[in-house]
Amino acid sequence: MATGNRDGSRGGTRGRSRGSRGSTRGTRDGGGRGQRGRERPDALDLWTRVPPRGRRPRLNRDELAATAVRIADREGLGALSMRRLAGELGAGTMSLYYYVRTKTELLTLVVDAVMAENHVPDAEMPEDWQEALVAIARTTRATLRRHPWVMEITEDPPIGPNSIRHFDQSLQAVSGLDAPLADKIDLVLLVDEYVFGVGFMDRQSGDVDEQARETRPYVETLLETGGFPYIEAMVEEHGMDAGWATFGQVSADKGRFERNLRRLLAGVAADLGQ
Description:
Elements: H1 42-48, H2 61-75, H3 82-89, H4 103-115, H5 129-146, H6 161-173, H7 181-204, H8 208-223, H9 229-238, H10 240-251, H11 256-272
Helix pairs in contact: 2-4, 5-7, 8-10, 9-10
């Protein structure tokens, strides 16, 4: 998952996806400092931090992340807290700080756990660059649909190793493309932005018929102002009911995601002369 930002730009993380920018700050308690006092990126510190001596941890970060994901899947992101997680694990809240020092570190683990699902098995990876990108995009969207709450994370936690893995596989997909590196990276980010943009819209979407019932009086009032000439022309030609029905049919079309992705890639191929 390039794990994306809320605007769909998290490719490679949410792709570049969640936390693609990565933080270069050390942790507030100084745990982010490496040898000779130099600061480490937060994500690096999280995975390389040496636990204090003399303690025998009952849990591990993988268990924390998996449990946190289960809570969010069942109850939504808002239900996830250190106290809630501790209760689910049967541990004291303060004991969790032995594994993660902040809520941001917990979210880093959570996003990375989700991104672990966002990988096309090597045996299923197509050789053709367009088909490979479609396969990755399809996998990314499936991950987002299993865990739609991930689009609600606004803290932008540092990037984890599985987000890097997603970016690595995306580079694999375009490795055979005869194009400069900048164009390859641009293409990888474009696909992630498309997928995460669709994921965000999926998260916001609801029942089209219900939306029509609730929105129609408002739209009709707006059309009376004459300020929306093309919608008005559509209604005059097709009728309000038919217009809404067509909108609902198009938005609910399950083939729309992949069809438009292929159109996008075909346009890129034509532009690059491939």
